[in-house]
Design a protein that fits this description.
Length: about 500
């Protein structure tokens, strides 16, 4: 199936943007200027100025002689690229593949999108109408190659939707500029009397290559569809994405929930067919005013259950603010993993980390309390306590090393050991008193020391002598001395709390 592409041409991109900042400029002759070889030249003009004979490339002094009331401002370098990038992101509501086409356009890959708007003509009209509502003067065309759509949008005439069977006829009547050729090639063609594509399209390719270069043949091939042209979208397209345009803007919580349910059913059906499950997803709502509302979820194991995923989204749905209404919903599965349905054994009970109900419970708790509240940890092959474990990627991950159970460890380990003041007999006696956060603790029982050396292959430093101590209130702590007593510098730290 051939692709379909839309080229959007912003006829007065820069002056339209400046007029948005001050609407009165839209009714007056207005231009943007830049210094060129010591002269102030016009680089952009609005429609009013063009109607009075002022055009790009004219000197500002000459233009003011033609129109004394002409207003002029210096251009802002780099603004066109930033502006087109923002407009491209806004156009994602029409298709996931939108590319910037400098200096004044966008290219959209709309393959398979038009039916959501009732056909290609209503689809193209919707794009133009909504951009015009944002106060931009636009012209757009749809064709089966980006090059042909580009040429028709700038040099063609209505109808702007070019049917595949008419694409060659439409191209023949266009000037050479419609092929996106370099300026010197266009000048040479006009000098030779080649003013329409029909006059040279059937000439031998070697002759055209010798006279106009390889880039000329590439542009011609792209327009005819003989050479592929890959668009670079402003946002990477997720492999697992579902879109739901709305006939009328959605403003109610019920409508948002119904839209989410439809998207989840479609996405999960596809995931189930491919034996995959999502680990992370985001729901985006594109509002009428151009803003995007979104909520995201994460799971602890791959899931393709629409009911479970809806419950995870349900907690955050009230945070979506539809304002004047949401006109497009997009559901993206940003992280997808293999998911195989395991056969359940009726004679064995459920339990452990493989129980699906456990992962769904953790997902719901994480959705309510936050993703950083519940974690699973795995043993890591290190002696240093704070490096002896790591955070697990998922509930399904299997440990690569056994837990160290030869020594008692605290149930809560501080991320960074904290300094404490200690009174102890020497040499190598356990502490008798220690002060932590301003409170004095009298130690009634102590076990130790347990020496843990530095991992010399990672870092150099002093060893630690750990003690398990209990104060007179029955609270138990894990303390250590860094270095020997006979060394000039040694310090005491608290590293954890025991049960």
């Amino acid at each position: 199936m051939a692709g379909r592409y839309v080229s959007v041409w912003f006829r007065h991109l820069m002056t339209d943007w400046f007029s948005l900042q001050e609407p009165e400029r839209r009714k007056q002759p207005f231009v943007l200027t830049a210094p060129v070889h010591g002269r102030v030249m016009i680089v952009a003009a609005n429609a009013v100025a063009e109607a009075r004979g002022i055009h790009v490339g004219m000197a500002l002094a000459d233009a003011r002689a033609v129109e004394p009331t002409l207003q002029a401002l210096p251009e802002r370098p780099g603004l066109a690229r930033k502006l087109l990038h923002r407009l491209a992101e806004w156009c994602i509501r029409f298709t996931p593949v939108v590319a910037v086409d400098l200096p004044d356009g966008l290219l959209l890959d709309v393959s398979g999108c038009a039916h959501l708007w009732g056909g290609e003509t209503p689809y193209l009209q919707a794009i133009v109408r909504k951009l015009q509502a944002r106060q931009y003067d636009v012209q757009a065309a749809m064709a089966d190659t980006p090059g042909r759509a580009w040429g028709v949008a700038r040099f063609g005439r209505a109808p702007w939707v070019i049917e595949p069977q008419r694409h060659l006829d439409t191209l023949l009547t266009l000037p050479p500029e419609a092929l996106r050729l370099e300026a010197d090639a266009v000048a040479r063609m006009h000098k030779l009397g080649l003013h329409q594509v029909r006059q040279f399209i059937h000439l031998p390719r070697p002759s055209l290559r010798r006279r106009f270069g390889e880039s000329f043949l590439q542009r011609l091939g792209q327009a005819l569809g003989h050479e592929d042209e890959v668009l670079a979208p402003v946002q990477p397209v997720e492999a697992y994405q579902e879109r739901l345009p709305c006939l009328e803007p959605i403003v109610t919580a019920t409508g948002i929930a119904i839209g989410l349910e439809q998207l989840l059913q479609t996405l999960c059906k596809r995931l189930q067919q491919e034996q995959k499950g999502l680990r992370a997803a985001v729901l985006k709502g594109y509002r009428v005013d151009g803003k995007v509302e979104q909520v995201s979820i994460g799971t602890h194991r791959p899931s393709n259950s629409p009911q479970h995923l809806f419950k995870l989204f349900e907690t955050s749905l009230p945070t979506l603010e539809p304002a004047l209404g949401i006109e497009l919903f997009i559901l993206e599965a940003s992280k997808v993993e293999e998911h195989y349905d395991h056969q359940e054994k009726l004679w064995e009970g459920h339990g452990g980390l493989d129980d699906l109900r456990l992962s769904e419970l953790i997902d719901r708790l994480s959705g309510r309390l936050g993703p950083e509240v519940i974690h699973r940890y795995m043993p890591d092959e290190h002696y240093w306590p704070e490096r002896s474990f790591r955070r697990a990627v998922s509930l399904q991950e299997q440990p690569t090393a056994p837990w160290c159970i030869g020594h008692l460890r605290p149930v809560q380990l501080l991320a960074i050991p904290e300094r404490v003041e200690v009174s102890a007999l020497t040499p190598d006696h356990p502490p008798m008193l220690f002060r932590y956060k301003g409170q004095l603790h009298t130690i009634v029982r102590a076990d130790g020391p347990e020496r843990i050396e530095q991992e010399w292959w990672l870092q150099q430093g002093q060893h630690r002598d750990y003690y398990r101590v209990e104060d007179d209130a029955g609270r138990r702590y894990w303390l250590f001395r860094l270095g020997h007593y006979h060394e000039k510098i040694y310090q005491w730290f608290i590293h954890g709390f025991l049960a």
